[in-house]
Amino acid sequence: MSKTIVITGAASGIGAATVTRLKAAGHRVIGVDLKGADIDADLGTAQGRADMIAAVEAMAPDGIDGVLAGAGISKGDMPRETIAINYFGAVATLEGLRPLLAKSAHPRAVAICSTAAFLPFDADIVDQCLAGDEAGAVAAIAERPQTSYSTSKNALSRWVRRAAVSPDWGGAGILLNGIGPGVVTTPMTAPLFDQPEMVALIAQSNPMAVEGYAGAEEIAELIGFLLQMENHYLVGQIIFIDGGSDAILRPAQV
Amino acid sequence: MSGVAYDFAGAHVLVTGGTSGIGAATAAAYREASAEVTITGTRGAAADYDHDLSAYRYLQMDVEDGASIDAVAADLPRLDVLVNNAGIALPSLGLDEYEPEVFARAVNILLVGAFRMARRTVDLLAQSELAGGGSVIGIASMSSFFGIPIVPGYGAAKTGLLGLTRSLAVEWGPRNVRVNAVAAGITRSRMTAGTFASEEWTAPTLSRTPLGRLGEPDDIAGAILFLTSPGAKWITGQTLAVDGGYTVSG
Prior knowledge:
The complex is a heterodimer of chains A (about 250) and B (about 250). With about 250 residues, chain A is an alpha/beta fold. Chain A is built from nine helices and nine strands. The longest helix of chain B is centred in the middle third of the chain and has 26 residues, at about 100-125. Chain B has a single domain, classed as NAD(P)-binding Rossmann-like Domain (Rossmann fold, 3-Layer(aba) Sandwich), CATH 3.40.50.720. Chain B contains seven helices and seven strands. In chain B, strands 3-2-1-4-5-6-7 form a seven-stranded parallel sheet, sandwiched between helices. Chain B is globular and about 45 Å long. Classes of the chains: A alpha/beta (about 250), B alpha/beta (about 250).
C-alpha cells in the first residue's frame, strides 16, 4: 500500500537517497529542504519549522505514515545553526508532525543521529537542549563551539531514546527510532579521500571491521526498512550503520 | 597570507599541480607577491577548470610521462622557483599500492617525476638572479615520517623526497640553487573546510596537534614562500615540517 512519508533534508545526501528509494517503492514522498524541495523551509528557525508543519498539513490533511528527520548541517564555523537545525529543527519536525503520524495505521519515524555520539560533547548544552532551552543552548554553543556537531547529535540521540518510549510515541503505536551513520561517502566528503593522510586520520577516529565506506544509498536502505516495517516491536533504538565502529569502540555497551 | 608580505616581483615561478589544494594556494601567494606564475594541471586547458586560473600561465602536464615533464621544462624561458607539487594518491583511483606495479607507479609519480622536473630546470634555476638563489621545493608529507598503511608507495616516495632534497642540495649548492622541502601536515581542502567530516573525525589527530587545528593550504604556502625567499638564503637541504606540532607530539 502506498504510504505518505515526509523527508527533511531531501535535497542531498542520505535524505535524497531515501527519497529515491521510497519513490521507487511506490510511496508518496513530501520532501523538505532549504530550497528545491516540495516544501522549502529553514528548520533552523521557529518560523521555518511552523511553516513546514503547516505546509505538510495542507498537503496531507488525512495524515502521514512516516517521517525522516534528516535535515542537518556539518559546518564547524556555524555552531549556532548546528544546534538549531540538528537538534531543535529535528525535534520540532518530529513533534510537530506527530499529530499527523497519529492518524496513520502504522506510523513510523526516524531521526538521523550519528557515530559522532562517540566523540566529546558538551554535557551542559545537551541538558539545555533536552530541557527545550533553545536560546540558552545556542548562546552557550557560540561560546564553546568546538563540539557543536557531536553535541547536537548526542542531544538528538538522547531525545529519541526518551521520546520513543513515551505515551505519545511508543504508547500511541508510533514507532520512533534513530540511525547512527558512520563514515558515508557523499559529494561533500569525497575530496577528503584523496589525501592518504586524511584517510589515515579517518581510520583512527572511525575504526571499521569492513572494507570501504558506505554511500548514501546504503544508509537509505536501513531508513527504508524502519519507515516501512510491519512489526510493532522495534522502538527507541539507535541503530548504528558504521562498518563496525560502534562495536569496536564500545564493545561493553550491550 | 595576512601579516607577512613577500616581494617576488620579476621572479618566475612554476607550481606543478597548481590547480587545487596546496598548489593553488602557493600559486596564489606567489601571484600576490607579484611573481610571474606558471601552473600545470592534467586537463587540456585552464578553461576546463571551474575556477578562474587567468592569473597564471597554464600548461598541461602528465607527471607520469617523462616526455610531458620535459616539454613543460623546455617551455620555460626563465625559472627562479620550482615547486614540485603535482601528484595523486593512487588509492583515490581505487588502486592497491600493494600491487607491485601500482607501488612503482606511485613512486614514479611522486619521486621520479619530481626529480625529473628538477633535473630539467636546474640550468634555468642556476641563472636566477633572485636574492638567495633559485629554489626547488618538494612537497613532503606526514607519511614522510609515519607509516600510513594504505599507501606504501606514496609513503615511500614522500620519504624518498627527503633524501632527494639532501642530495640535490649538496650537488647544486655550488650553482647557487637551494633545494628544500616542506612536510605538510593534514590540510583541509576548500571544499571540505568547516564540515563535520573534517572537524569531528579529526579529534584523535587534534589531540596530538599542539596548535589545535588542521592546516590550511595557506599555512603550507607561507612556508614555501619563506624557504624560497632571501630570508632563507642560507637554508638548503632541509625538510620543514609544517604541521601544528604533530610530528613532535606524544
